[in-house]
Specification:
By secondary structure, the chain is α+β, with helices and mostly antiparallel strands. The protein has a domain of 33 residues. Strand 1 and strand 2 form a beta hairpin. The N and C termini lie far apart (29 Å).
């Protein structure tokens, strides 16, 4: 709620679309991301270059 300034009960794809854009810009292969990872039923995780996935 605080981040997106929207009521928590509303469904939005805004975070998903934002991560998709980040992947297109920063990932060598956006279909197989190595840095912006999806954690099922949790959200997303950023993995830096020196960190293992």
């Amino acid at each position: 709620e605080n981040v997106w300034q929207m009521p928590g009960h509303l469904q939005t794809r805004a975070p998903d679309q934002f991560i998709l854009r980040l992947r297109k810009v920063f990932e060598a292969d956006s279909a197989n991301p190595r840095h912006f990872l999806t954690i099922r039923d949790m959200g997303y995780r950023f993995v830096s270059k020196g960190e293992g996935a």
